[in-house]
Specification:
Distance between the termini: 70 Å
CATH superfamily of the largest domain: Oxidoreductase, molybdopterin-binding domain
Number of strands: 19
Structural class: mainly beta
CATH architecture of the largest domain: Alpha-Beta Complex
Number of helices: 5
Strand content: 35-45%
Order of helices and strands: HEEEEEHEEHEEEEEEEHEEHEEE
Radius of gyration: 22 Å
């Protein structure tokens, strides 16, 4: 009997001080959750009908989050959580985009949104990041509960307030507390009046606030990754099954420009071709992922169609953000 009592004590010890629910088969909902008061968010900018959105009228989505912070230049694990809340795609669903008159580029893939709170914290997301992939892991929390390891004496605190969380981010640079406002914007600039006869771009011009570079042959510390993806466009449907060995865009940017991890919350990239086709990707999509679905550059050499470099976004459901014959990559910031 004493041995049995001692065994039960050891079993319960790791859970001391933790408010545990009745066990289920799920590995994500063992512990009690914290619920945050509902709120509304103002949506403004390039939309037909700006105004507040009552979050309680929206469906609840769920996601598991591993949170990694940055302190004094070092990565620090902040905890793992199972959250439910209001996805950005649902918040924006009733707000139809209306681009400014000077932007004559018709597709919505050059749009982005800025989420902010009353304390001036801001995070940027591309429109495609929200609507061209399964984006239910980009949400404003309604509930949070910790996901503790089963045998380690580890705990971490739950936030005091609702927050924006981003499940596919490596660092928590875009996790901001109590979001109150979302501004919808598009990349400034029109589209060419006429399509150029020659679409081939032999190199990529990389432009950043700190300087620029021309990229021809890619070498150095840039990973080349095998990838097989089904190309399915929103307009025309199935295109092909694409097998490629593409260069990881994150590595290419890091090898040619100085990158500060914290800037992933406030920057976005514009990838464009000679004919004016362009796509916007958030800084986190390019440089701060934890899902291994990095953007790839497919090198077609001197191929007459689609060359030289084609940008492919394997993590997207729709292939509309893929850019053939990439001519320019611009790094932009929402912070003046």
């Amino acid at each position: 009997m004493k041995r049995l009592a001692f065994f039960l004590f050891l079993l319960a010890a790791p859970l001391a001080g933790q408010d545990r629910k009745q066990p289920t088969n799920s590995l994500f909902d063992d512990y009690e959750m914290k619920t945050y008061p509902p709120a509304s968010v103002m949506v403004q900018g390039e939309v037909e009908n700006p105004g507040p959105v009552d979050l309680t009228s929206l469906p609840l989505r769920s996601a598991a989050i591993k949170e990694l912070g940055l302190e004094n230049g070092k990565q620090v694990f902040k905890g793992s959580f199972f959250v439910s809340g209001y996805a950005l795609c649902d918040v924006l669903n009733g707000k139809r985009p209306k681009k400014v008159a000077e932007n004559t580029f018709v597709p919505l893939v050059d749009m982005y949104v800025i989420v902010e709170n009353d304390r001036g914290e801001k995070a940027v997301f591309s429109w495609g990041e929200i609507y061209h992939r399964d984006s239910f892991d980009l949400l404003i929390t309604r509930t949070e509960q910790p996901v503790y390891p089963a045998r380690a004496k580890t705990t971490w605190p739950l936030p005091d307030r609702s927050r924006l969380v981003c499940g596919s981010d490596l660092l928590n640079t875009r996790f901001i507390s109590s979001p109150t406002r979302i501004t919808v914007k598009s990349y400034a600039g029109g589209a060419p009046a006429a399509k150029p006869k020659d679409l081939y771009a032999p190199q990529i011009h990389l432009a950043t606030p700190a300087g620029s570079a021309n990229i021809g042959d890619i070498d150095g510390p840039v990973e080349r990754r095998n990838c097989t993806t089904v190309l399915f466009g929103h307009g025309m449907g199935f295109r092909e099954v694409l097998n490629l060995k593409g260069y990881v865009l994150r590595d290419l940017i890091a090898s040619r420009a100085r990158w500060v991890p914290e800037s992933s919350k406030s920057t976005f990239f514009v990838v464009s071709a000679k004919d004016g086709y362009r796509s916007v990707f958030s800084g986190s999509e390019v440089m701060n992922r934890n899902d291994q679905e990095d953007l790839l550059l497919n090198d077609l050499g001197d191929a007459s169609s689609g060359g030289r470099y084609t940008l492919v976004a394997p993590g997207d459901f729709f292939a509309d953000r893929d850019v053939k014959s990439v001519e320019k990559i611009e790094l932009m910031s929402i912070v003046p």
